[in-house]
Amino acid sequence: MSPAMINLAVESETKGGDDSIEIEFQKGVKHLCDKGITGVPSKYILPVPDQPKSSNGTWSVSNRNLKLPVIDFAELQGSSRSHAVNSLRKACEEFGFFHLVNHDIPRDLIENMIDVSKRFFDLPFEERSKYMSTEMRSPVRYGTSFNQNKDEVFCWRDLLKLSCNPLSDVLPFWPSSPADLRPAVVNYSKNTKLLYLMLTEAILESLGILVDSKKNENENDGLREFENGSQLIVLNCYPKCPEPDLTLGMHPHSDYGFLTLLLQDEVEGLQIQHEGRWVTVEPLPGSFVVNVGDHLEIFSNGRYSSVLHRVLVNSAKTRISVASLHSLPFESTVQPSPKLIDEANPRRYKDTNFASFLDYMSSREHKKKSFLESRKLT
Ligand code: OGA
Ligand code: NI
């Protein structure tokens, strides 16, 4: 379809009535942009109250960037561990998000991960489309929006989702082009998994569930389940957008897992809800943005909260991010830690597992925090 025809769809505000236009949307945002659209098609236009500059209900939009708390990974591993664990607790309680600096992952590995992601999205559509699937459970899925089967309004994002469990089984299904994608993601996933495990140890310590692991190596069997946990790597591409105030790169959502480690390029776009406002997270080069997911909120019985976040797009630059989502094994039950429940602190969440989350996700439009809400005991 020519740019003129796609733009015609924009101008005539076609609302899914034309099948051929609907098929174009299913091919993703990168494809639309490569075709040369000059406006945002109606499929992507949010209702005015949900647009990025609108104050939605009680959530106004801050015009100042937010500096997230900074957690120093080296400090966590050293003699100031208890100080760093305290900072971690505060960050998880007050923000649900933090920057992680001084982690051991080499800079070239990180830069290469962003670079190979860019090169994947720059491949011709025919190459990318080999991995296209609308099956939400597929271990490899190239797609667009969140749930492109159900989302009424699409978001301005294309994604490549790579399940990492177990690596040897899934690897043959990962894209074979660019040629260095598989080794780059394998290397990246192993490094982020290790980092996640060490962070999780500190988080359990911050909740008072584990004792100082540097002093008592044998008492921490509780970590074993995390070691066998699940990992998903999602490469996100937010192409530059001709009318960025009408749409979002990701709609407000919380992450379902235990922790997410997010790598972003130098372009800002991530916004989180904080103190009654949507605020843009100021990028900190070389750091990871780490956030509490739904499973950690449940596990901590609500002490740490899985905060809603969204992604803005812009008209100047395409933005790339790589999310590494970690949780317990797929078959595990997630429940509030018994060590955090007593008469004064009754259990606040029902048990949950991945299967129920995936059923929920496949069956409906991705809406805000609704899954977590459904797990709350009232
Ligand atoms: C996510 C996410 C934010 C970003 O992948 O869940 O929130 O900036 N990503 O890409
Ligand atoms: Ni997220």
From TrEMBL:
- Please tell me whether the keyword Ligase is annotated for this protein: no
Cellular component per GO, a single term: nucleus
- Keyword vocabulary terms for this entry: Cytoplasm, Iron, Metal-binding, Nucleus, Oxidoreductase, Vitamin C
Tell me which stretches of the chain form a coiled coil. none
**InterPro entries tied to this protein:** DIOX_N (IPR026992), IPNS-like_FE2OG_OXY (IPR044861), Oxoglu/Fe-dep_dioxygenase_dom (IPR005123), Plant_2OG-oxidoreductases (IPR050295)
Compartment(s): Cytoplasm; Nucleus
The entry lists its GO molecular-function terms as:
L-ascorbic acid binding; metal ion binding; oxidoreductase activity
Q: Does the keyword Nucleus apply?
A: yes
- Per the similarity annotation, which family is this? Belongs to the iron/ascorbate-dependent oxidoreductase family.
Q: What is this protein called?
A: Fe2OG dioxygenase domain-containing protein
Q: Which organism is it from?
A: Carya illinoinensis (Pecan)
